[in-house]
Amino acid sequence: MIRPATTFCNLPHVALSELGQSGADVAIFGASHGTPYQPGTPSHAAGAPTALRAALEWYDTQRAHIDMDTGQPLLGTVNAVDIGDVLGDPEDDGAGNRAAIRAAVAAVRAAGAVPILLGGDDSVPIPFFEGFSGDNVWVVQVDAHLDWRHEVEGVTHGFSSTMRRASEMAQVAGIVQIGARGVGSARAGEVADAEAWGAKLFPMRRVHAEGLGPALAAIPEGARVVFNIDADGLDPALCPGVLSPAFGGIDYQHMLDLFEGVAARGTIAGATLVEYVAEQDPAGLGAKAVARLLCNLIAAVGPRRG
What we know:
The protein is α/β, with parallel strands linked by helices. 29% of the residues lie in helices and 17% in strands. It has helices spanning 48-55, 95-110, 125-130, 162-167, 188-197, 204-210, 213-217, 252-265, 285-301, and strands at residues 26-31, 66-67, 72-73, 80-85, 114-119, 137-142, 172-178, 200-202, 224-230, 267-274. The strands form two sheets. It has an eight-stranded parallel sheet with strand order 4-1-5-10-9-6-7-8, with helices on both faces. A two-stranded antiparallel sheet has the order 2-3. It is globular and about 50 Å long.
């Protein structure tokens, strides 16, 4: 792991080897590189961990203030730390990057903390989910796209295949997908495959019509939930820094309700925040929005149980 120049919200940096002695409830880490479609070409979202960490650097002075979104102090009562970045390589064909991410997740879990990953593109959640081997989790995806492609140009672990690969993992008991809209990674066959597997699909038009209640009800009581949040699942008015803006997306209040609703039904076991493209967000407003949502997510995790 590499120590970042700036930690998220100026949280303490703790080396992964010392995480178990830190008493941390949440461990944040970055991974800029997953599985590229063309080795040697850096991910379009490679700058995300740095940008998201810097977005709320000034929050270091706000620790005693109440966050009016949650009614709690900033980050709630959670002991959160930043353990740095996985050493990834854009030249790698993906196997080495995946192994490093998978090992980091397993080590965080072994230390008793909840892993939260700052990506990187939507290929990095695949090894993140693999790091939950031996667990039993539901994946809640927020994304404009379904990501059920088996392969793209021969690559099976790229950012269009995230949910299909998740569906093949023994530790993934169920999948709830929220926010799909427009066109993208799903053709008729991929939609049929997702539905045949049992994924619960809540396209954005349904969310706007019915609210989040049906999606939350699809998550079993007591479930351990891993979030996979793609920045393009958010409306581009909230986060313009994405590769493919899709209009009519999830707004800030939706996400607060989603975090709190999931926490009320079960346990937040992990999360990824991926596909933020700093170069598409010159004013940095999208980075601030995503970072603020991460603050709310951390507060919803709560202190470790037991």
